[in-house]
UniProtKB/TrEMBL annotation:
Residues 1-26 form the signal peptide. PROSITE patterns: PROKAR_LIPOPROTEIN. Residues 239-358 form the MurNAc-LAA domain. Keywords: Hydrolase, Signal. It holds the Pfam family Amidase_3. This is MurNAc-LAA domain-containing protein.
Length: 363
């Protein structure tokens, strides 16, 4: 009888300890194949840094230039960095394994310039496939490390660039709950946008955006603007600050054009204001889009036409927060263009935008 009890007890122990271990192993071997052996790129000249009131964000880019045959479904593929972090007072060490450090120089001096939170930053290669990022911070701040996935971009020839940022955020200990908004003046530099009625769209976009920025800052919002001069900004670079700073709203400012071959009835219908959003985005911007269109058209007295659901526009599909793109007026329409020649109307658009933002966050 005693032997029998020992046998049952022994079997029970085996069930408790051995079986779960073998299940775990089975799971590990199933997932270890591809993602665990992949060596990604760490481009030392592609680090990102963004700063607003009371907050900064450093993006360490871990990327892969892969073909569709290597990754399968490109919409589902994700770069998964292998890293460990240790935060010790004002030092953060992030050790990243299975990366190949690429790029001849780093851009750390531009990151450190006027940086409120990072005193120094170093990148060391520990061995062929391991790198360490050392960050020295200043002041008493809260530090968090997260992963932020960037939308893939096509490089042609069936090649794609996938990036996941190791996102290190620095927040002052004062509690700042004010909303974070990214203002994005469309085009810039060699990208002129629409040119009509003696106006470059890129210039008008910048003028309106700067006025919106001033208005929002005065009202206590935390603002990052993707360009504040006539420079080129890549499409995904426009939404990186929104994603790395974990913004509440992405607001792109444009002015529209109409194809030359549409009939007069269409020209008449499609002048004025509309706002674009993406209904398939993780957080669609439709609600803000409709408030914004109403406010702008009622203050500037422009014609409106229905909101546009655009699922393939890069800026609307790469932001993780609600994103909209405002076509303020149709620059190709003589009446619209003449009206916007008067800067008082750019200011009115900015005032209407502030009202829309206030309404959106207060409802
Ligand atoms: Zn445009």
């Amino acid at each position: 009888m005693k032997k029998f009890i020992y046998m049952i007890f022994g079997m029970l122990l085996a069930c408790i300890f051995i079986l779960p271990v073998s299940y775990c192993n089975a799971e590990n071997t199933a997932t270890s194949e591809d993602s665990n052996s992949k060596v990604y790129d760490l481009q030392q000249n592609a680090f990102k840094y963004y700063q607003i009131n009371h907050k900064g964000a450093l993006g360490i880019p871990i990327s892969c230039l892969c073909s569709e045959s290597e990754v399968g479904d490109i919409r589902k593929y994700t770069v998964e960095p292998k890293y460990s972090e240790s935060i010790n007072g004002n030092r953060i060490e992030i050790t990243i394994s299975q990366v190949n450090v690429t790029g001849s120089t780093d851009n750390f001096s531009s990151i450190l310039k006027d940086n409120k939170y990072i005193k120094d930053i170093k990148l060391d290669k520990l061995d062929n496939n391991t790198a360490k990022v050392d960050i020295e911070t200043s002041g008493k701040i809260d530090i968090k490390v997260n992963l932020v996935k960037r939308r893939y971009s096509s490089l042609g020839d069936n090649k794609y660039e996938f990036t996941t940022f190791i996102d290190v955020t620095f927040e002052e200990k004062v509690k700042d709950n004010s909303k974070i908004i990214i203002i994005d003046p469309g085009h810039g530099g060699s990208e002129l946008g629409t040119t009509a009625n003696f106006t470059y769209e890129k210039q008008l976009n910048l003028d309106i955006s700067k006025r919106i920025k001033e208005n929002l800052i005065k009202s206590g919002y935390r603002i990052y603007i993707t360009r504040d001069d006539d420079s080129n900004v890549g499409l995904l670079n426009r939404t990186d600050p929104a994603n790395l700073l974990n913004a509440d709203l992405f607001f792109s400012v444009h002015n529209n054009s109409l194809p030359l071959d549409v009939n007069m009835q269409c020209v008449y219908m499609f002048r004025g204001t509309t706002v674009l959003y993406n209904s398939t985005a993780p957080k669609p911007g439709r609600e803000f889009a409709s408030i914004l269109m109403r406010e702008v058209s009622s203050i500037v007295k422009t014609n409106t036409y229905p909101l546009q659901d655009r699922q393939s526009l890069a800026v609307l599909s790469s932001a993780w927060c609600p994103a909209v793109l405002m076509e303020t007026i149709a620059l190709t329409d003589d009446g619209d263009a003449k009206m916007m020649m008067h800067r008082i109307n750019s200011q009115k658009v900015a005032d209407a935008s502030l009202r829309a933002v206030n309404k959106y966050f207060n409802t």
